[in-house]
Amino acid sequence: MQLLNRWLTSIALSLLIWAGLTVSETFTGVSYTRVEAAPLSSSLIAYLPPGNAITDGRALLRYSLPIDNKDIRTLQADLEGLSQWLRSKRWGPIKRDVNKVSRFLGRRQQAILADVPEALQPEATVYLEAMRADLEPMLEAADNRDRDTIVAKRADLLAKVTAIEEMMVTDFPFEVPEEYSTLPQLKGRATIQFETTKGDLLAVVDGYSAPVTAGNFVDLVQRGFYDSMPFIRAEDNYVLQTGDPDGPEEGFIDPKTRKYRAVPLEILVKGEEAPIYGSTLEELGMYLEDPVLPFSAFGTLGMARPESDPNGGSSQFFFFLFEPELTPAGLNLLDGRYSVFGYVVEG
């Protein structure tokens, strides 16, 4: 197995936070000879807003939460939208939108709290009041043209929005098909720390949108499967891939059954209540549909698989090295063809 010295050479993973993992006892499947991402050339529902593609992994994770509170979504969108003014250093629109957020919080706080379980409402109230207190320093920073302070305050505000939105999720939003019930499932989210020879990364894997794919990954992390495993493929501005074990096998062989664990293609489409399994969106004629977890952020976690078999993934996965000009958001060849199960959020 070739080590890629020009990039990261080995990886060790540790599970920091996890919830709702169901481990199966038996697995079925067959082995394959080639597992990888495609060549570059070739009811509660999650919500993604219209307009420009979202390229921030944290924002994508917020929008993918299965909640139905329009007020918290409006608050989130207004805060996310500050990024466009920060990039161009337009202080007037920043002050306008910060004042808009302040007025909105004053009017709609109770509407936001309405979808938070009663036991958690005091904690959510503390977050909302802290957010209102943080807005005045943002206005002062805008007057002083202090971009760094605004960026930091915006990140803190969005972290509080995330915490409140997570409180609103009280039940898992759908049932995984019975045929996949023996596979590990993550019914929630997990935070994974990657330790590599070139630095550490932090990622969030999303079981709300891809419970089987995320559950399989978390199970392998817990087993230590990826520890000290080298990266086997590195393509600038495209993918960085690992997960191929030593020996002839191309994926995970369960030690109890001695069989290849095959994981189905799993894609939650915007507006749908449950993921589509086993078929690409292209095969279903759903060319214009948008996945809730798209390949639009640097550090997107995707499940590798044999190109000819949507249900042949196992242990190999890749980091998508998003490059707007080469793999534009919403217009690349990966969306709808490969499962996304999380995003790198730090590192």
Properties at a glance:
Four Helix Bundle (Hemerythrin (Met), subunit A), Cyclophilin, globular, 2 domains, alpha+beta, eight-stranded antiparallel sheet
For the sheet with most strands, the description reads:
8 strands, antiparallel
User: Would you tell me the structural class of the helices and strands?
Assistant: alpha+beta
Give me the strand/helix succession: EEHHHHHHEEEHEEEEEEE
**In angstroms, what is the radius of gyration?**
21 Å
Low-confidence stretches: 1-10, 17-36, 38-43
Give the second-level CATH assignment, the architecture of the largest domain.
Beta Barrel
Helix percentage range: 25-40%
Strand order of the largest sheet: 1-4-5-12-10-11-7-6
Kindly, what is the distance between the CA atoms of the first and last residues, rounded to a whole number of angstroms?
26 Å
Task: Describe, in plain words, how this protein is organized in 3D.
- Residues 1-10, 17-36 and 38-43 have low confidence and may be disordered.
- The protein folds into two domains: 1-50 and 174-347, Cyclophilin; 67-168, Oxygen-evolving enhancer protein 3 (PsbQ), four-helix up-down bundle (Four Helix Bundle (Hemerythrin (Met), subunit A)), CATH 1.20.120.290.
- It is of the alpha+beta class.
- It is globular and about 60 Å long.
- 31% of the residues lie in helices and 16% in strands.
- The two termini are 26 Å apart.
- The strands form three sheets. An eight-stranded antiparallel β-sheet has the order 1-4-5-12-10-11-7-6, sandwiched between helices. It has a two-stranded antiparallel sheet with strand order 2-3. The chain has a two-stranded antiparallel ribbon with strand order 8-9.
